[in-house]
Design a protein that fits this description.
This protein is an alpha+beta fold and 469 residues long. Helix content is 53%, strand content 7%. It has 19 helices and seven strands. The strands form two sheets. It has a five-stranded mixed beta sheet. It has a two-stranded antiparallel ribbon with strand order 6-7.
């Protein structure tokens, strides 16, 4: 920071020291499941072992870098549930980058995901996600693993496998009608005046509703998650997000209790599973990630209005003192405290502040000379520092209400800087913060609960800067 701004009151190292170590530097090897930032291209996952843990082959998962790919998501979800040790190598999807020659030598098609399996000196490459998942499901897992239903001793059970294969065929049918809905024409109507593609989509969801009712329990095959749930989860997630964004259909809000009660319950149960939530995206992120992968998605008139609301939602979030985050009428995460969500948002910013500050300047219009850019970077850095401080006040349980939070916030050290700025300079700072507020994608940059806190913190600081006189 420049001499006009620099102060011992603004210390990133001091801020960093207040973040719990398990959040600042999480144990990616053996800690809880979580997404990792794009800059981390390689890491290894291990899990607790006991006398009942079987011997697994050496496994490398090649997955996409930005967590866009649903096929990669479902494979990694299953690996986490089964607690099979594996390494991750991140590879660009075709739509956003080149692939290393070393990977293409192994997989000439370049398609993801890929599983490399090594045992007794032999190496096998699997390239279809369902083949990968069937292989993983066939492995014997720790008998103390109560989350996942292994297929280890079930492949000879014709009735059981018949049910599984029927459910998997239905998932492919669902994926087809979903893509047809969001990529197809919006003007094709049935005799009943409803879009044909929408009718096909909803009727296929009826079949999924029935499938969830066939076997007692919250999941497709009973009380435990299985390969089938892992296959469905990323596509249901993307389908519900995208039909809301592009077609204006809020499936659960419009039809849930009356028509899709089992699906609602299944989603609610999934959102209690950390291994799922660590890779879950939201409508805003999926709306940006899908078109580069699948091509143009078409808006209905209703969809245009909903999309505008979702696009502006990051700038509407209000900072609150609470223990859960409600989004579109749903509790979006469970089992996370207000502290961990806000701490994670701060930790992500602390780790990436230089890149975030530089990226935020893309939101600033007008020409600036070198000195102007340097000064603006310092001011924006101060703005992000304020975001961290306000989030930390709440995370550390120092306040019980926003009124109390605003009283404890050290306003004067910021007012001294921002109140004396020219109007245009202050607006540049605000524009930069707002730009970055809308840039956060889930789970690429941070997990969903942290994103909401991060955006809420930015909005609070933007309003604070506007009020500085």
């Amino acid at each position: 920071m420049s001499t006009s701004i620099q102060s011992s009151n603004f210390s990133w190292s001091n801020l960093q020291s207040q973040i719990p170590s398990n959040i600042l530097n999480p144990d990616l090897t053996s800690g809880p499941a979580q997404s990792t930032r794009p800059s981390l291209l390689h890491y290894t996952r291990t899990f607790p072992t006991s006398s009942t843990t079987p011997q697994f082959p050496k496994i490398i998962l090649y997955r996409d870098t930005f967590y866009w790919c649903p096929y990669c998501q479902r494979v990694q979800f299953q690996l986490e549930l089964q607690q099979i040790p594996y390494s991750v190598e991140k590879i660009n999807m075709n739509c956003y980058g080149t692939k290393p020659r070393s990977f293409l030598n192994k997989v000439p098609s370049g398609l993801l995901p890929v599983l490399e399996i090594s045992k007794d000196g032999n190496t096998q490459i699997l390239t279809e996600s369902l083949d990968i998942m069937r292989f993983l499901a066939s492995l014997q897992i720790d008998e103390n693993n109560h989350k996942f239903l292994s297929f280890y001793d079930k492949f000879s059970d014709k009735q059981f496998m018949g049910t599984v294969n029927k459910q998997l065929r239905l998932e492919r049918q669902f994926a087809g009608v979903w893509l047809n809905l969001i990529r197809g024409q919006t003007s094709s109507f049935s005799l009943f005046g409803q879009n044909r593609s929408e009718l096909e989509f909803l009727s296929t969801l009826d079949l999924i509703e029935e499938a969830l009712d066939e076997i007692p329990g919250s999941f497709f095959l009973g009380d435990k998650l299985s390969l089938v749930d892992c296959v469905y989860a990323p596509f249901i997630e993307r389908a519900f997000a995208s039909v809301l964004y592009f077609r204006g259909i809020h499936v659960l809000e419009e039809y849930g209790e009356m028509r899709y009660k089992n699906i609602m319950n299944w989603i609610n149960e999934l959102e209690l599973i950390p291994e799922y939530m660590s890779g879950k995206g939201d409508a805003y992120s999926h709306a940006r990630g899908l078109p580069p992968q699948i091509g143009r998605c078409n808006f209905s008139e209703k969809g245009k209005h909903i999309a505008k609301r979702i696009d502006e939602e990051p700038l509407q979030r209000k900072l609150q003192v609470h223990n859960g985050i409600h989004y579109n009428g749903q509790l979006f995460y469970n089992g996370f405290t207000k502290s961990s969500a806000k701490y994670e948002a701060v930790a992500c910013l602390v780790h990436n502040k230089t890149a975030v500050i530089c990226d935020s300047l893309k939101g600033v219009t007008g020409e600036l000379d070198e000195a102007g850019i340097k000064f603006l970077k310092e001011l924006v850095e101060l703005g992000f520092y304020a975001v961290c401080e306000i989030l930390m006040l709440i995370a550390q349980d120092k306040v019980k209400s926003m009124e109390e939070c605003e009283l404890l916030f050290d306003r004067e050290k910021y007012v001294t800087v921002f109140s004396g700025l020219e109007k245009s300079v202050k607006q540049n700072v605000i524009d930069a913060l707002k730009y970055e507020c809308k840039r956060v994608c889930v789970p690429r940059d941070m997990e969903i609960h942290a994103k909401i806190e991060f955006q809420s913190g930015i909005n609070w600081v933007v309003q604070f800067i506007q009020d500085c006189r």
